[in-house]
Design goal:
Distance between the termini: 46 Å
Radius of gyration: 22 Å
Shape: globular
Number of strands: 14
Structural class: alpha+beta
Length: about 300
């Protein structure tokens, strides 16, 4: 059974458990980052304009491992009920550009893997990546939820894309300022107070994690004006910038490490440890502080501005 058929059977089972006069259950395919399609089930309450969606991949994998479909349908139904809201969301904040503009920010995505998406959304090129734009909600219960800006929104707002770009380039460093932390400090924090002996980090290449305070779409910080330059000047070294995901990058001071070796590492980690939806690039970037220039090291000994 393919995941689409599995999802349809889940919908049939869930429909049998709800009052179809006040609720509607439907499946739909949702395109995520990097051209990845997800199957989801949505529970629509009559008179409410916000509906929870539960994605099927986890449940489908468990079904393939032998778990019964009715039991999985009960879990999905419980999750949909747990996440539902009873009031409609006031969307007036988004209907006017004057109201929305101070919350519009940008993120970086892989250009090649998002060719279809980029036909539908305004974007700017950043080296071999693309900068796309979204509205960042800061109100509970949707704190840190996002709305991706499409070309249709520019038509609704009656603005040129240049105005969107200008506003987002100004907002993003303000709303989501760059944070840079030593890898050792992050590891210690993840270990939650357990004793780590300092020799654990001896002879390690110094690494720094750069993101933003909410650790979401934090790879965009590599495009913030002056951030990479100021850090490179502080440590007085050129930098390799490793795109560990769309949410963060790792800064590695140059110390004889070849970019090609780092490229191999990035590609391996992306293919084995990073969620495919969160991959940014399979290669590193290099910052030359003397030239104040970032370049993309796509292949061994070949870099692009």
């Amino acid at each position: 059974m393919q995941i689409t058929e599995f999802t349809n059977q889940m919908v049939t089972l869930i429909k049998s458990k709800v009052n179809t006069e006040t609720k509607k259950v439907q499946s739909h395919s949702i395109w995520k980052n990097n051209g990845i399609q997800e199957e989801g089930i949505t529970l629509i309450e009559k008179g409410v304009n916000i509906s929870p969606t539960v994605y099927m991949r986890e449940y489908y994998d468990r079904f393939l491992q032998g778990e019964p479909l009715p039991a999985l349908a009960n879990e999905v139904m419980e999750e949909l009920e747990r996440c539902k809201t009873y009031k409609s969301m006031d969307i007036s904040f988004f209907l006017s550009f004057d109201n929305a503009k101070r919350h519009i920010v940008y993120k970086l995505i892989n250009r090649e893997k998002n060719e279809e998406l980029l036909k539908e959304v305004p974007s700017l090129s950043y080296m071999d990546l693309s900068m796309v734009f979204y509205y960042l909600l800061d109100d509970m219960p949707f704190h840190h939820a996002t709305i991706l800006i499409h070309n249709s929104h520019l038509t609704m707002w009656q603005i040129a894309k240049e105005e969107l770009f200008r506003q987002a380039l100004e907002n993003t460093p303000r709303l989501l300022p760059a944070t840079i932390r030593r890898m050792q400090d992050v590891v210690r924090e993840m270990m939650k107070g357990r004793q780590l002996e300092e020799p654990l980090f001896e002879n390690e290449i110094p690494m720094y994690i750069m993101s933003n305070p909410i650790k979401m779409n934090g790879a965009a910080t590599m495009a913030y004006p002056g951030v990479i330059r100021n850090f490179a000047e502080t440590i007085r070294k050129n930098l390799y910038v490793i795109p560990s995901s769309i949410h963060e990058v790792i800064l590695v001071p140059e110390s004889g490490t070849e970019g090609s070796n780092l490229n191999d590492m990035v590609a391996e980690v992306n293919h084995t440890q990073v969620d495919p939806k969160e991959v940014l690039a399979d290669h590193v970037y290099y910052y030359d502080r003397k030239e104040d220039q970032m370049i993309s090291c796509v292949h061994e000994n070949i870099c692009y501005c």
